[in-house]
Structures are given as C-alpha cells and as structure tokens.
Amino acid sequence: MWTFLNSGRHHATRLTVLLIIIIIFVAAMSYSAVSYPLTHSASIVAPSEVDRPIDLLSGEHQAALAKHARNASLGFGDIVYISMPERTDRQDAMTLLASFTGISLKLMPGVDGTVVPPKAIPDGAPKDIPPSVLGCFRAHANAWQYLLQTDMDTLLIFEDDLDWDPNIKDTMERLSLQMQNSKIRLQPPSDYERMNAPYGLDWDVLYVGSHKHGGNPDLKDSAQAWDDPDVPGLKGVGGMGKGGILYALRLAGLSDFDIEKKRMLTPSYTTEKNTAYAITRQGAARLLFLLSYIGDLKAGDVDQDMTRLFIEGRLKGYTLTPPAFSQFKVGGSKDSDNIKVGKTVNGKGNVKGYSPYLKGSARRLIVDSLKLDNWNDYKKVTGTVTTY
Ligand SMILES: *[C@@H]1O[C@H](CO)[C@@H](O)[C@H](O)[C@H]1NC(C)=O
Q1: Coil, strand or helix: which one is 117?
Q2: Residue 2 placed within a domain
Q3: Is 167 contained in some domain?
Q4: Ligand 1 centroid distance, CA of 155 (Å)
Q5: Whose Cα sits closest to atom 11 in ligand 1?
Q6: % of the chain exceeding 90 in pLDDT
Q7: What domain count does the chain have?
Q8: What are the pLDDT digits (tens) for 314-359?
Q9: Model-level pTM?
Q10: In the predicted structure, residue 183 carries a pLDDT above the cut 80
Q11: For the segment 10-68, what is each residue's pLDDT rounded down to a tens digit?
Q12: 358 C-alpha vs ligand 1 centroid, how far in Å?
C-alpha cells in the first residue's frame, strides 16, 4: 500500500486514499471511546463505600459495632432508671452521674404497691406480699412493657442508687467485642445480630450490675473471661459481694492471679438483685409471660423469682462478673425504699458513701470535679495582680 501511495503518479488518488484512511481511523477511535463506557460501564465504575458489601465477620466491622457501646445509651436501645417519684434526692444524683459520664437516662416512675388492687396481683404471688415488694415488681414489669411498646431491640434498666466507673464506656466496648465473638452462645449470631446488636440478642436478660454471682456448677466451662484494666482489686470489693464474685470466678477456673485483671461472662444462674440489667424483646415478653401472665411470682421479690427461673432453666441470661454497675451505699434508711425513716440513721451522706464493686467511681468524680475553693483561688491570683 505504501508503495502505491509513494508511486508519485496519482497525487489526487493518493490524497483521497490518505484522507479516507484518516477518517476511518478517527471514526474508529471515537467509536471505541464512546462505545466502551456504554457497553462496559458496570464493570469499570469504581466500587463506592456504599456499594461495597459489608463483611459482617471482619474485625473492622465488629470494632465499629462495638463503638456503639460508647453511645449515650451504651449500645442498648434506651436506658431507664426506676425511681419512686418522691425520691427526688436520688433523681438529682442519677442526673448528675449521667451527665458526667455522657449517658442519657429516662425516669421510669416507681410504683406504690398500695395502689395495685388485689385483682392485678399475679395469681401465684404470696398472699401477704408487702406493698413495697409488690410495687417493685410492678415498676420492673412496667419497664418490660415499655420495651415491647417501642421498636427497640434492647432496654437497659437501672435502679436509682447506682454508681459506675468513669471508664464505663471502655468496659462496655470490651464486653461488646467479647459478645460478638462469644464462645458460650448456643447458635452463631444471625446476620441481623452481626449488623445491629453490639451485645447479640441470644439472651432474655443481661446482668451488668447484680449481687450474687456464679454460673451453673454443672457447666463450669460455660464461661468466657477477658482482660479489663478497670476491674477492681479484691481489696476494693467489700462485704458479702466479694464472696459471691470470688466464688463465681473460681468456679470457672480463674486463678487468683487472673481475678484482679479479668471480667467474665457466664450463663446466669445464681444472679441476684436487679441493680442494672438489660432485656431483649424476647426477654421482656418472657418475663411478662412468666411473672404476670401465668402469675409465677412465687417469692414476690422480682429478683429472687428471676433467679429461680434461671435455675429452673425457664429464663436465659448472661451475668457479667465483676459487675460494671454497683449499688451506692450511704448506710441507714436512705439505702432502701423498703426501710421506713424513723429511728434508723439517715446514712453518712453521699460524699462518704461507697460502691462495693468498682475501681473508679463516677460518684467520686462528681465530688472531685465540683469541689471549689473560690476565694482561696482568687487570693492566689490577687497576689500576682497587686505587684503591678
Ligand atoms: C446506641 O446504639 C444502639 C445500638 O446500635 C442503638 O440502638 C441506639 O439507638 C444508640 N443510641 C443512641 C443514643 O444513639
């Protein structure tokens, strides 16, 4: 072809042929430029973050879900605290605590048992159930109802005399990572749980603050323990709570060396006291069914009945040991709404109160943070100012 073009004999023909070649070339180039994206667009668009499928098993995803445990409801749908409407002193304290640690609480009014008419008392309740015990059951049952009336998956329920470590969010984030990789679940988590539930949903009740501890002695291996630098030293754990914690940790085979370093999760067995516990929707339904609908409130004390239901295997829970939430004790009649104010001492006051299960204390943080020595502070400043 080049020989022909270069032959020199037909300039016009050579030019025409050259032009045709150029036109074909340009047309071919522009066709491919236009048609390539049209026909192959799907395969060449870079995957955006949104389009990329989430790998539910990746460490990255689990860490992101565990971060929800740091939000204002600690990774649960909501947090309520039960408080008798007249215990405004405790409501003041809970409001301070929550605001100091970035937690948001809703008041769930406690119930005066004398207003619960006989017809509303669960069939199996003791005939002589004291009004304060009946009212306590009713308030917790109202919290269970509240969860079912929302579209949330979980609810954390507090009593109103709590304390927690200022590092509570670190502890809850660690707990979430452990529960996402639980070794003591019966079935692996569903995709919905892996996507939405920082603590999984394979439980009715999750105790994060309770009194008696310990898993089922027949299933000692059903326990999962991990390092948590915010665990209290044994010296810091006071009273009969200490024995319960030691019993539980030793039952699961933890050495004394590990005991001041680790937290542990076990299926709930002898757990007692509803100081701080979470429920799932299934848990709320099961509790209302067992203790109200079929009326199996045998002991009357709601926490004791729940313990019995765990031991009977009719309620499914996990217990965190040592607990992350502790009762705060001031001593005397202020510590319980079941004790009448009378001759009993009115307690040693909030500043001298103590929390048996904690290393750090948000109550102490409040005292330290709000302490002020204003005029002495001014005097220190004035000393330098007057030298002008
Ligand atoms: C905290 O995280 C949980 C779990 O994702 C969620 O259900 C809840 O709404 C969040 N709470 C707040 C206050 O964002």
Answers
A1: coil
A2: no
A3: yes
A4: 10
A5: 73
A6: 64
A7: 1
A8: 999 999 999 999 999 888 777 877 666 665 556 788 998 888 889 9
A9: 0.84
A10: yes
A11: 566 676 667 666 666 655 555 544 444 444 444 455 555 566 778 998 999 999 999 99
A12: 25
> Are the C-beta atoms of residues 252 and 266 closer than 8 Å to each other?
yes
Sheet strands (E) in the chain = 79-83, 106-109, 154-159, 162-164, 205-209, 224-227, 262-267, 276-280, 317-321, 325-327
Longest dimension (CA), the chain: 130
CATH of residue 69's domain is: 3.90.550
Closest residue to atom 1 of ligand 1, CA basis: 75
State the residue range of the domain holding 318.
59-350+354-368
Assigned domain for 44 exists: no
Domain-located, residue 101: yes
DSSP SS3 for 294: coil
Q: Whose CA is nearest to atom 14 of ligand 1?
A: 71
Give the integer Cα–Cα distance in Å for 230 and 188: 29
- Separation of 75 CA from ligand 1 center, angstroms? 5
Ligand 1 center from residue 318 Cα (angstroms): 21
Ligand 1 pocket by Cβ (under 6 Å)? 68, 71-73, 75, 77, 198
Whether 4 shows a pLDDT value over 60: the answer reads: no
Task: Please tell me the chain's helix, strand, coil percentages from 3-state DSSP, rounded to the nearest 5.
Answer: 45, 10, 40
The alpha carbon of 51 and the centre of ligand 1 are apart by a number of angstroms equal to 24
Q: Give distance in angstroms: CA of 149 to centre of ligand 1.
A: 17
Q: What is the torsional sign of CA 247, 252, 255, 260?
A: negative
**What is the H or E stretch that residue 134 is in?**
helix 131-148
Q: What is the pLDDT of residues 238-266, one digit of tens each?
A: 665 677 888 888 888 888 888 889 999 99
Which of 61, 62, 67, 71 has most ligand 1 atoms within 8 Å of its beta carbon, as the pocket-test mutant? 71
DSSP 12-34: HHHHHHHHHHHHHHHHHHHHHHH
Q: Round to whole Å and give the CA distance between 301 and 103.
A: 29
- Give phi and psi for 216, each to the nearest 5: -70, 120
